[in-house]
Queue: 2 jobs
Job 1
Amino acid sequence: MFESLKNLLKHFTGSQESTSGISTQDTISSAADAGHTQYITLGQFNLGTGSIGPDNRNDIDQNILNQMYRAIASGLFNVPVNNSIPEICVDGRTNKNGYRKSAPCAAGGTLSIVYGGDLGSNSAATDINEVQLTTQTINKLKEKGHQAGVHGDDHSDCGCGACSKAPTIYQHITERINDLSSLTNQLGINITESEKESIVQQAKNRLSQAGFFAENRASVVQAAQDSGADYEELVGQHNELGIALNTRVGTTVDRSAIRSKYGPQYDMFVVDAWTFGNAAKDINSTGNEADEQRIAKAITLQNVATASVLGHGSLPIIPIA
Ligand SMILES: [Zn+2]
């Protein structure tokens, strides 16, 4: 599935080889000619109910922005990682020293596997809640030798949007499944009718299960830490201008390097989509291929739905093939 995403993105973005040696001036002029309409946006799929996005900013230079999108798409900011599954959050911010861990990203870090694993599972077990599921998932990942990770920030109770808004994200999946899957379909990930039905049903089950979602959202991040997940404290406001959708195996996107090239207000969400299939394989308890596929797609949906809840319709998706 993710091989097909990679192939599609290659087609989508043209040959990497032809863009890698391009001069800065060429990059600016060709990007300026094309604008950023060459990239799909959340709004094109009727998604993006949040506020984070370029149209809500007045501190950005459009030419620099286009140059940045082109450079990110060409893989200029990709750096190697050790883990093969999501470990840190897509959040574009950094810690107080201006850095993030070099690790694969998904919405909520390891919580993406918790929520995606839950939504993609066929189990209607109602004897487990979100906090217990978080502990169970992290223990399972640790057994497989993976490091887990979550985050907060310096000014909120629960500074991770994927966690603080998890019930809203589940709700968004039940209400907007067709828009969300139109977007994934555009990226080469086809979610079948029966997969959609199963994932939506599981989201509805959890929303109606009394006490599944913790009232104190920070307690979920705390449970992850108590199970051994690393914690990052991010600082400042959200300045994300796009979603870097990375399919280059073994890499992520270096946020600090983007800031030092374009300025401190130029941030990106980073989604390391190449890790989703690996995470699904590790978390699937049945060993059944169809279950594994559905979990990988549920992780994908949890990421797109999080972007749609937090992000504005103007937020573009910048593929890195
Ligand atoms: Zn987060």
Job 2
Amino acid sequence: MVSKATQKMHDIGYVPPKETWTPIDEALYGVDTLFRLPKEKTDELRFNAIKHAFNYWYEESKWYHMYCNEFDFSPTSLKTYGDLDKVPLISHRFFKAYLEGQEFVNWLMNISINKVDRPKIKKQNPTMDDLIDVFADKGIMAVYSSGTSGRFSFIPKDQTTFMRSQYALGKMGISEMLEHWYDDSAYAYLCGPNPSKTNMWVGKVVKLMDDVYEDVQYAIDRQITTQLMRVSNGDIRGLSDAVMAAAMQLMGTSKKITGNVINWLEEREKAGDRVFIAEAPFIMRRVMDELEKQDRTFDFGEKGAIITGGGWKLHDTEEMPLKEFRDLAEKTLGIPHENNVDLYTMVESNWHALQCPEGHYLHLPPTLVYPMVLDENHNKMDWGETGRFAFIDHMANSYPGAMITGDMVTLLEECPACGRTGPVLEPNVRRMTGEEVRGCAEEMRKLMDDQTPELLHDLVCTPDRARMPMMLLDREEN
Ligand SMILES: [Zn+2]
């Protein structure tokens, strides 16, 4: 028996025909539930999917192949479940080590597994946004992080990768965590950019909302470009909420948005509609602060649900603790804690983690990701320990998805609060350290003028395991 939301995604064509499925698709589309499978079944589905994906990355990505050779690791090395810990991982910094202009095209084409024709660049000095558009025409989304460290991470995602990621989000969110709540007659307000008008991952990732709700309003319905992010990034680098806030200021829309959301809430309450509010918590917070100031409240109760987007606030030192945020939402909007959960996603991943309504732990979908926590020497740590987050993401079809992130997490074998199966992260995910990333960006800037910037960048600020691919890329011809 599949849920209403899963049925809906099937009906509107999110699921490829069954006869084309690989073990990767089996682990995603072939399961009735992500969080209630027996462990043996989960492990089997996941192992087969990773084996399939790794083989594909190894065969199709020249640089990853060479990188794996350095570790003496090949598809035949992946025999048992325990071998998953040895899959060569790539540092997230690797995806920041790009140059601009024509060099960016070479870099992205090198990283990408998909064989696309070299895009023709008509402009003399193309901006990053021009280049993003050119790749979009070739079927490659160059999606990027919110650039809070002063530099974006770019990942090439093809349609297959993106659709898997969209289905995963719907399956986790409205089909499982909020299954008790979801109804496609609900009205949605997206407190962020229109996903069709940005390639910034945290904005793009909620594209499926357009398909699963009666109506979707966007707080920011204009193009959000790297240029805009860069301008707004100016002096307040490091605070991702602040970055977005500054972007809104630039657009002169900040005040208007708060008013728009309040008007919308008013109409929806009058009509007795179900409401779904998603994404940037700082926009919602402004709305709720304004309501408090006006001494007004709404009472949506069970008719309301909120999913905040974790990626919007990872850097924000003045971030409101999520518990206080939920208290405020309950007080001003009448939306209960169980219908108010946080999403953790990043440009480097296609799976997502979502809080459970019961305990607000971040659940990792067990058939879709193999998570690890590493110490400073990149050795795997035990359950319950805090360290650098790494994972194997077999849904990545256009680049190798074995990643070491810049996030600090505590990984638990199971949720202390609910009966769902699979590992969870404690809700307080943090960037490793701001200084470290910033330092790297500074170095990058200096090295930009150098003859062999990739190589130097790599030696200066990339952790050991990521050195190889940069050096190899440097040697690649095209
Ligand atoms: Zn839980």
